[in-house]
Design brief:
Layout lengths: L6 H15 L1 E3 H7 L5 H13 L3 E4 L3 E4 L8 H6 L2 H12 L7 E4 L3 H10 L5 E4 L14 E4 L3 E3 L4 E3 L1 H7 L4 E6 L3 E3 L3 E4 L2 H12 L1 E7 L11 E4 L5 E3 L5 H4 L4 E2 L3
Parallel strand pairs: 4-5, 4-9, 5-6, 9-12, 12-14, 14-15
Antiparallel strand pairs: 1-3, 2-3, 7-8, 10-11, 11-13
């Protein structure tokens, strides 16, 4: 006999489906979750709408409700480039020879990659931008397996999560799409959020590389709480600064 899912599990499944298709009708969701009744799905969708995670549309359709969406990595690199360089410079000062670090995907983490590649360190990463490194370096790079997302140059999924459990990181450098004092750190993609949680579980110290344009932004899926990381940014934020340390240029 199949065990019924609790509301949290159902709602996570709904968000996962919407992350793949962006817009679905309730009947389509019911076909994805055949053991869940239409009335139960409607209740779950109402709860998700109250929390600002989905938007219910006329005609029985639903979509992810997000103030920030996933942008191709090539476009991200051109945005706030000076701020990202400043953040990467601050983060690089925290990396020392002999360290074993995790480096996330994203344009700011890629900027950090180029600043630490000549250190005698071990970099464990899901950031496929490492393939742009063509010179010999003293750094050892371990690229974890998983599903390739070419839009954000990232590997993720169950295989990635399983591989992450093998490692213990002295330091993890994470990226995200939004950070909000109430909603926490978020990303549009459920599998990326799961990956970030796995990294946090295995890291002694975790930093979030976040330019100030992401303050107050909320993406579809909460990855972790603001208090779980130290933020490295180009500017201070009063509300977020009450919750965790923010490292920023003087």
């Amino acid at each position: 006999m199949e065990v019924a899912m609790i509301p949290y599990e159902r709602q996570e499944k709904i968000l996962e489906a919407l992350a793949q298709d962006e817009l679905l009708k309730i009947e389509q969701l019911q076909s994805i979750l055949p053991t869940v009744s239409i009335s139960t799905l409607r209740r779950d969708l109402k709860e998700l709408e109250k929390s600002g995670r989905v938007e219910l549309l006329a005609g029985g359709a639903v979509k992810i409700c997000s103030t920030t969406s996933e942008m191709p990595i090539a476009a991200k690199v051109a945005l706030y480039s000076q701020e990202k360089e400043a953040i990467a410079t601050l983060a690089a000062e925290l990396v020392h020879d002999g360290d074993v670090i995790y480096l996330d995907s994203g344009s700011t983490c890629t900027a950090l990659l180029h600043k630490i590649i000549n250190k005698k360190i071990t970099i464990i990463t899901t950031n496929t931008s490492v393939f742009t490194i063509q010179q010999e370096t003293p750094a050892e790079i371990l690229l974890l397996g998983g599903r390739y997302n070419p839009v954000i140059s990232s590997l993720n999924g169950p295989l990635t999560d399983a591989n992450l459990q093998t490692f213990n990181f002295q330091t993890a450098f994470l990226g995200a799409n939004g950070i909000d004092a109430e909603k926490g750190v978020s990303t549009p993609n459920l599998v990326e959020a799961n990956k970030k949680r796995e990294i946090l579980n295995n890291a002694k110290t975790a930093y979030l590389l976040c330019d100030s344009s992401k303050y107050g932004q909320v993406a579809a899926v909460k990855a972790f709480s603001t208090e779980d990381v130290v933020i490295i940014s180009d500017a201070y934020n009063d509300k977020i600064g009450e919750l965790t340390q923010i490292i920023y240029p003087n």
